[in-house]
Design brief:
The chain has 270 residues and is mainly beta. Helices cover 13% and strands 49% of the residues. The strands form 3 sheets. The protein has an 8-stranded antiparallel barrel. Strands 9-10-11-12 form a 4-stranded antiparallel β-sheet, with no helix packed on it. The radius of gyration is 28 Å and the shape is elongated.
């Protein structure tokens, strides 16, 4: 009995170490796990959906390229029976050969791809260089409004200026794949004149609304628009919309500029 009792702490200690080591190994980043080079080599090339024939992605070296020019190329690895794209997110491989690749997407559906031969690419080839373009940039939008307030004439100008400031938004695409799309933010300029006298002139950026919009939303949102909403005794009202690009989720912030040029902001309520 004494012998068994003396071994108990030792066994507990050994078990603790084993569990700790297992825990560390289980939490290793994907980049540190041994990769299946053979499986990765089989994935090289241009892949299309088996049923529709639509291009899905192109795998070249360690990178995945998508047909959507807004989607960022992403690094990929193959560890065991799992395809990792863009980091720790894994897709279980159901079937793989030289010309066939099946895996489960984020919706639990099996994506069935076939490799497209080089002589079949033609117009459908995915151009790696397309990701250098900036398809989200627009022309400057200008609005000019004249209003009367207490018998005086005011001129309100709004200019929505596209920028090169990137917004990277992570989302699940229609194929059930997590992707990062790149958009470009706006800077909005507002000027107010009474006759020839300038009452107000300022640039607006999305960061100045951090007190009204949650940070996790603001980071992937775009200063999408600024609209003149009228004037009253408090001043001139402008509604800023901060939205996820290509989505309906928005926060609206009211900007009120009084006749002395002072600005106040608050979350807009309909």
């Amino acid at each position: 009995m004494m012998c068994n009792n003396s071994l108990a702490p030792l066994l507990v200690g050994v078990l603790t170490v084993v569990l700790a080591v297992s825990c560390v190994n289980g939490n290793k980043p994907v980049e540190e796990l041994p990769e299946s080079r053979e499986a990765k080599q089989l994935m090289q090339g241009l892949w299309a959906e088996r049923e529709s024939g639509d291009l899905f992605f192109r795998m070249e070296g360690d990178t995945v390229y998508y047909p959507d020019s807004l989607v960022q190329p992403a690094a990929f690895r193959v560890v065991g029976d799992t395809l990792y794209i863009g980091g720790q997110l894994g897709y279980h491989i159901e079937k793989q050969s030289e010309h066939v690749l099946w895996f489960k997407n984020q919706n639990g559906e099996v994506v069935k791809l076939e490799k497209t031969a080089a002589d079949q690419q033609c117009d459908g080839e995915i151009d790696i260089d397309q990701h250098q373009a900036m398809p989200d940039l627009r022309e400057v939008i200008k609005r000019d409004t004249v209003v009367m307030l207490d018998g005086q004439r005011y001129h309100c100008y709004i200019a929505i200026n596209p920028t090169h400031y990137k917004i990277v938004r992570t989302s699940i695409n229609e194929d059930g794949m997590q992707v990062e799309r790149v958009y470009y933010d706006n800077i909005v300029h507002i000027s107010i004149f009474r006759g020839d006298a300038q009452l107000f002139s300022r640039d607006f950026r999305k960061q100045q609304y951090h007190r009204h919009v949650p940070q996790e939303f603001l980071g992937q949102a775009k200063l999408n628009d600024m609209e003149f909403a009228g004037c009253d005794g408090r001043g001139f009202h402008f509604i800023a919309s901060l939205c996820y690009p290509d989505a309906a989720s928005c926060y609206m912030v009211e900007n009120v500029i009084d006749r002395s040029g002072q600005l106040t902001t608050k979350l807009f309520e309909y």
